[in-house]
Known about the structure:
The protein has eleven helices and eleven strands. The chain is an alpha/beta fold. Helix 6 links the parallel strand 5 (118-122) and strand 6 (142-148). Helix 1 packs parallel to helix 3 (41-52) and helix 10 (275-286) runs antiparallel to helix 11 (292-308).
Amino acid sequence: xxxxxxxxxxxxxxxxxxxxxxxxxxxxxxxxxxxxxxxxxxxxxxxxxxxxxxxxxxxxxxxxxxxxxxxxxxxxxxxxxxxxxxxxxxxxxxxxxxxxxxxxxxxxxxxxxxxxxxxxxxxxxxxxxxxxxxxxxxxxxxxxxxxxxxxxxxxxxxxxxxxxxxxxxxxxxxxxxxxxxxxxxxxxxxxxxxxxxxxxxxxxxxxxxxxxxxxxxxxxxxxxxxxxxxxxxxxxxxxxxxxxxxxxxxxxxxxxxxxxxxxxxxxxxxxxxxxxxxxxxxxxxxxxxxxxxxxxxxxxxxxxxxxxxxxx
Length: 312
């Protein structure tokens, strides 16, 4: 199963919302993880859309970034109001070296939420954590133990039940600036090929966005579109399409047209298709520049579809 990890920024949430029908048709293959960063109408509408289509998902209730850090009670209340009567989801708890999941679990016990079970997100190696979490099973079912491989190491997952293990990695090759992606085609991941052999029930990543979080926005000198695809060796790679007129920050729409033209030529030559690629082609036909957030949204949508289609 694939667990795409998205923050609750607007374009990431809209990407999930627009992929609801696809995910509903692939219920046994995908379960998104959402780390909410603000209490927004988009967050609520996205959660409702997932619930209406009976998509299983995970919501982090102790986020590490954004406006909702240390706001677990507020997030639980938001979920109670938004998901009343729906239970096909898991509250997710990030576990680090220092935090105490028992405090959060006590809040869940007192809540009105109905859910499948708990997802634990392991962001550090903690001695005896698997043993200490056994008591949780008296009150909750542990559905997923998501192991952040970059922070814990692959051996750490062996402490947890085989049916709960999910690998999480940040595989996007982040550059300092968009112009650095010129003529770049980068390897992303082969987790989809080997996760079962390595003892995981599923795999997770931060898509073509990366784990680093920032609310800051700025006009770029170059526009880059990151498009995931399945290569001939069945590994996931990312093709980067970058504008050419990158001397200054003027004419962002023109830069987008340059990058988009390269993308359309390439996908046509490779006969690659996805929901997002069709939207990119429609933008090319209309000549409309939808804004940089839409590019990130379509890139995320394409990555989810390619990742779900990458394994049996």
